[in-house]
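Subgroup meeting minutes
Present: P.N., E.W., G.H.
Scribe: E.W.

1. P.N. recapped why we're keeping a running log of single-chain structure predictions: easier to compare across weeks, and new members can see raw inputs and outputs side by side.
2. G.H. added today's entry (462 aa).
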Amino acid sequence: MVKYSIELKQRVIQDYLSGKGGSTYLAKLHNVGSSSQVRRWIRNYRAEGLPTAHSPTAHSKVNKNYSMELKENAVQCYLTTDLTYEAVARKFEITNFTLLASWVNHFKIYGEVPISKKRGRRKKLESIASSMTQNPNDSQRIKELEQELRYAQIEVAYFKRTSEIGEKCSNEQKSRLIYSLRKTFKLKEILKVTGFPKATYYYWVNCFERVNKDELIEKEMLKIRQEHANAGYRPMSELLKQRGYHVNHKKVQRLMKKLGLRVTSYWHKSRKYNSYKGKVGTVAKNKLHRRFRTSIPHQKITTDTTEFKYYEDGIQKKCYLNPYIDLFNSEVISYHISKQPSYQSIDIALNQALAVTSDCPYRRTFHSDQGWGYQMRDYVSKLKSHRIFQSMSRKGNCHDNSVMENFFGLLKQEIYYGHIFSSFEELEQVIVIWIRYYNTKRIKQKLNWMSPIQFRLNYQNN
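Output recorded in log:
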């Protein structure tokens, strides 16, 4: 290795500071082996000033002996911080940073820093005795066992962390994990044990260093998720637009996957409640004929009953929801929750719906299935007294009242399936809160990305 005088180093640094040229030009001008050597002198100058005979990084003709404590402190400093070899070497006054690198490599392989070798030539008898006691086959076997041990340690460290992440561990997550293990193991050995492609690893490492240009959008998406727990990528795109972020829906879908915001609640199918008990009263004709759209508020109203389960003291019980929905904007205009499927519950919700829809300038139509409650004399006569058309779905045809089926599906998928409720009051409160959210905040594409109440108010103002 070529050694350079302190005077030469000082001249090179002064030429660099005076602007004579860069590291490549100065290396050729002063016959220095490489431009990297010049850059190293400049870095040392910025950290310590001009080199002198007493500079920590100046190469001494006499080899310096370092204590075990200093070696251990230097190695731990490098492994536990983001400092480079050169920075750590300057901190601990180590003459050559490559010496520190050899200590770190030795520590990664054997778990300890190397012991300083004795100075001077080994005695002849000592070398002979060493060669007699050491068997080449034994030393080779020891190396193999040490390598197997390192591989086993890598397997434990890597696969334990991947199991914590989950089965669907992405290449980005694997690359971050391997990157964190580099402080303890060699990258070559980690990639060999895990079978992870080297090119893929370096691709993601380069991505880690890039500036995240979508940081503001991602923060806003996390805020939206707190308010809209089940918004998919299309509603998320519209909610971002309302907040001033115009982002393509495909990019929103990609960012939601990255942030783990994909909706997972829409998966459960369950037996639906059936209130049909045959013909117990008057069965009305189907006047709606699946014409679920109307341009007039409160003209077409649909209703149905659905069932929920809850537990009290370990005993399964049921409650029932009777909502009335305006087909103009899919708004829940009235509802009632009860512990039994009674006509009284239907009647309470009906009276509220009659009061809300009384401002309609045309004759109203109330549609339902052929449930026993909607065939009762009191229900039929009350509709007639208010000059309301009664309409019923055909027997066994849920599509004739698909608006209600869709509403019940949304409600149960978002707040009911996968949850256990320990009291009627707890379940009732959750349903009430969700219906309020549905009416005031849950946007729909068919309502021009407005909530039901926003759509109605917008119609009234125009």
